[in-house]
Amino acid sequence: SAAEKGGYDYFMLKEIAEQPKAVADTLLGRIDGSGSLTLDEVRIPTRVLREIDKVVIVACGTAFHAAMIAKYAIEHWTRVPCEVELASEFRYRDPILDAQTLVIAISQSGETMDTLMALRHAREQGSKVLAICNTNGSTIPRESDAVLYTHAGPEVAVASTKAFLTQLVACYLVALYLGQVRGTKWGDEIRAVIRDLSSIAGAVEQVLGTMEPVRELARTLAAKDTVLFLGRHVGYPVALEGALKLKELAYMHAEGFAAGELKHGPIALIEEDLPVVVVVPSPRGRSVLHDKIVSNIQEIRARGARTIVIAEEGDEAVVPYADHLIRIPATPTLLQPLVATVPLQVFACELATARGNEVDQPRNLAKSVTVE
Ligand code: AGP
């Protein structure tokens, strides 16, 4: 009913708007007064967390994109090798697992069969499993050794939005916690990121306030067949997520690529007026990547692409090559997905509406996939 949707036309719009609160709720009570993480709820002894020599994350769909981003954070902050695998592929290839492997299963619903089967397999091999889940008491957390709940609140729309942002927050918390417990050389950076996380809900709110041009742009693209998405570093999974949202909702051909792969094939797809969304890393931090992506934008635009550029405020280098410029607030490099994903959600939702599609219940899809 209209009341359930809180005055919005679709649950998806309501859930997009709820993201600042969802993010803040997922952080609530997990950072103490001194700026350290208190994740006692993760009932895996710190002794065990100190001894693990590998992290493996399994998930499907949007949760898999959160996992890909988690890998960058975990490896950077903890120096523990991290693998990420689609849950549906995992157990069928006899993965190498033992008691020193921490397996993380990410699932909004907690009922996804592929993810459940993957975690059962991991536990049979003696690995500890930590669930990151949004649904209290669901099967995946019940069958795991420990759970870190995301506090997004119920997500009704089939296309995942607020659950994704809170999965990212939970992944950052786990990565930072592992860093804290194990003591890495990134101690100062870890403390700084914990501070930055505390203000990230405000940044998400800020992005939400600037989405009208994104909606306008989406409406002008309603008759297109294809949209491509490019990103690099943590922007790569964001590009994949933008493409998945567009497939699910707008039923358009959408593909995400790692920008560095362009010259290895995908650049052949570029033709006159093809919309290409590019997620640009911060010019601060890993600025080499920034410069490389700017030249990618130049290359595709020279071949006729219509460039839709998502870039940090104050990033002037992209201006000459952006047909459409979407600004996001500055964040630490690894946290950028929390703000960069939001315009892509709004874009997909508006395109779906413009194409007359059912936003909350896309064709052929179910909210949770309880068969393998
Ligand atoms: C996201 O928009 C999708 N509907 C889908 O990819 C989803 O993320 C996937 O099925 C995993 O679901 P889960 O998080 O409930 O396990």
UniProtKB/TrEMBL annotation:
Active site: K367 (for fru-6p isomerization activity)
Catalytic activity: D-fructose 6-phosphate + L-glutamine = D-glucosamine 6-phosphate + L-glutamate
Protein name per UniProt: Glutamine--fructose-6-phosphate aminotransferase [isomerizing]
Function in brief: Catalyzes the first step in hexosamine metabolism, converting fructose-6P into glucosamine-6P using glutamine as a nitrogen source.
Gene transcribed to yield this protein: glmS
Protein location: Cytoplasm
Source taxon at top rank: Bacteria
GO molecular function ontology, one term from the record: transaminase activity
EC numbers, comma separated: 2.6.1.16
Interval of the full protein contained in this chain: 240 to 611 of 611
Keywords, in A-Z order: Aminotransferase, Cytoplasm, Glutamine amidotransferase, Repeat, Transferase
Major localization listed first in the record, in broad terms: cytoplasm
Domain SIS: 44-184, 217-362
Subunit annotation: Homodimer.
Coiled coil stretches, renumbered: none
